[in-house]
Amino acid sequence: MTAMTADTAASPGATPPGGEESPRWNRAQGMLAKELRGRMRGPRAFVVLSFYLLFLAGFTLLIYFLAKLSAASDPTTPIGKPVFLGLVAFQLGLVCFLAPSFTAGVISGERERQTYDLLMTTPLSLMLIVAAKLFAALAYVFLLIIAALPLLAISLFLGGVAPEEVAIAFLMLFASALLFGTIGLCFSAWVRSTIGAAALAYGAMLVPVVALPIVAATGFSFLAAILSGSNSNNPSPTVSAAIFYLGGFILSLNPFIAGGLTEAIIYSNESLFFFTISNPFGSGSGTVFVIGPWIIYTVTALIATVFFFLLSLRLARPTRGGGRRRGTPAQS
Amino acid sequence: MTPIVETRGLTKSYGPFQALEALNLTIEPGVVFGFIGPNGAGKTTSMRILATLLEPTAGEAWVGGYSVTRESRGVRQVLGYMPDNFGVYDNMKVWEYLDFFASAYGLPRSRRLGLIDDLLALVDLSEKRDGYVEALSRGMKQRLCLARTLVHDPQLLILDEPASGLDPRARVELRALLRQLGALGKTVIVSSHILTEMADICDHVGIIERGRLLASGPIEELLRQVQTSRSVLVRLIADARLGDEAVAERVRTIPGVLGVEIEPLAATLRGAPAVVAMEGTRARALSQIIPGEAGAPPHLQPVPSALPPEIAGGSATDQRLAAAASAAPARLVRIDFDGDDYRLYQLLGELLTRGLPVYGFTEEVGDLEDAFMRITRGMVA
Ligand SMILES: Nc1ncnc2c1ncn2[C@@H]1O[C@H](COP(=O)(O)OP(=O)(O)O)[C@@H](O)[C@H]1O
Ligand SMILES: [Mg+2]
């Protein structure tokens, strides 16, 4: 018992002698180890990864043969492109569905298991706890993304794919993982049950991924009908430019559309970052500026990530609201 | 000495419901403090506020000099908290569990491993070191959680109903552990709704009901406050020459005596229902006395040999007494007495001087339950 009377009290704040790790490092390392251990322990994580890669390889082969078949008439067409697009689209879909579900339990799970109070009475900062949890939850998603790198390399060899495309794809995949991960995190901190948090996080994810293209498509056709019906002339260049910018921004919030538009830009041999179009709406309509849709998506996603992360910090405070068991008055 | 816990006007409302009303509590370092009250009294609420898990609606509280609302980091260094309901992580081994919390307090790895072994030895879980946490029994989890609260050697432990849900054996072990922690010089606040459980572990108690602190202080002081007078039980061997009235008369005139009640002891022995019909405290007092006298009651045996020589002396009086003993019942005299220990000693001398055949003289110490009932009754009235 001697060890715990004098020994341990002195440590916090003090710099340990002999170049030992600082208390802050010990905290971060301990928290991360705990989170990663909880997720990676046992054979499950490894088995899932193996099956994932096996499936992905099969998927790649399927696209490869389909592309080969359709390109049979013209053997000069590079078949790297369809393989690349198929792989990236599949991974993007996977990230959209896995990221929120991996993070939806991180805070609510501790609350459900009644371990949260114990965590909250330690000197671990909320920032560290939430960041470590987010990182550990997304680490597996990142692993799944990176593990597919060899398959993407194959598409490079098959031709028709530029290395920048692969880089952009990775950027968008990581940004998507962060965005949908923090959305799940936010609901996990807000809602008491993990199931509820996961349901809400999926709902929120479906807004840009599914609802946005549908709403945008109907909105634009509606707008086009109004504009052509009310006025026999074309709309003024200002209105056209406004619709162009707004529509472009909204469409770029969907990762699939942003990726597709980026591909279109590559196809038309324009700059991936920034270019201008002169007189797009008839002569004298001026110039419009086009920023790469992947940039718009990535930057917006990262800004939203920061926002949702900070919101999660607020929602994860233990003193928020009436304390434990909201809604059901405690009977103990 | 600066108090380790101090609350001033601490109030907590859940919507319109006031769970805690202006709690003023002071706890000195080094005491084992029992926080006693029925379910829903506000014990958990108070403890969660002290543990920085709940914000008070009004009022302030300090732990180790740190404000629980403004200096929660300081509070967390001082305090080890064990909630009433807590879970453990699955997928974690016992040593990993402690290692994680030790790292959370910033301890370097080199220090953690030795500490973990010490803590596991303290709570008697050494052989479970490499087992999984979720495979432990409830009592073991409770002890592991207690070890967890100790990793940073806190000055103060707040344990919310640690004994609830434990089997009797685990309870006994837990109490031994709590006493051990008290001996280590830690301040321990332990809540319970079971009074008798607290009496022999706690030095101080606070009694809370419906969010209000009814009384707080050292146990003996509290009992003394509640008991305005002392209660002395005197047992007299049977003496046919003395009537109840004569005995009462002789006792009543002794200085400091406030009241006298006489019960025939043998009658009580024979008629069990009489005991049952008696008030709680008295029934308990009697039940303490009766077991020793059941079987072969001493007053029915040849008395002179049982008396000390100064009193018995083998005289003729004693022969007569012995003869009378078989005919008349022994008596239990309950004396309400006002005075300190010295006056109590004088009372005994006076009883003997006045020729009363005393063979038993004990002070009846009221228990915590009794005190609790009196305090809460006073509150309702
Ligand atoms: N989160 C909550 N919301 C509403 N009422 C609560 C909440 N927590 C506790 N209460 C109420 O506050 C009172 C005190 O509860 P508690 O502090 O848990 O009592 P104890 O621990 O003494 O049994 C109870 O009546 C309880 O129902
Ligand atoms: Mg309680």
Overall geometry of chain A comes to globular
Overall geometric form of chain B: elongated
Number of helices of chain A: 13
What do the pLDDT scores of chain B average to? 80
Please give the alpha-carbon distance between the first and last residues of chain A.
34 Å
Map the helices and strands.
The complex is a heterodimer of chains A (332) and B (381).
Chain A: H1 2-7, H2 23-40, H3 44-70, H4 80-103, H5 108-112, H6 116-120, H7 126-147, H8 149-158, H9 163-190, H10 194-230, H11 237-252, H12 255-267, E1 274-278, E2 287-291, H13 293-315
Antiparallel strand pairs in A: 1-2
Chain B: E1 5-14, E2 17-27, E3 32-36, H1 43-50, E4 58-63, E5 66-67, H2 72-78, E6 79-82, H3 94-104, H4 109-122, H5 138-149, E7 156-159, H6 168-183, E8 187-192, H7 196-199, E9 204-209, E10 212-218, H8 219-226, E11 230-236, H9 244-252, E12 257-264, H10 265-270, H11 272-277, H12 280-293, H13 303-306, H14 309-312, H15 316-325, E13 331-337, H16 341-353, E14 358-364, H17 368-380
Parallel strand pairs in B: 3-8, 3-9, 6-7, 7-8
Antiparallel strand pairs in B: 1-2, 1-4, 4-5, 9-10, 11-13, 11-14, 12-13
Helix pairs in contact in B: 3-4, 8-17
Adenosine-5'-diphosphate sits between chains B (14, 17, 19, 37, 39-45) and A (322-325, 329-330, 332).
Please sum up the structure shown:
The complex is a heterodimer of chains A (332) and B (381). Chain A is mostly helical.
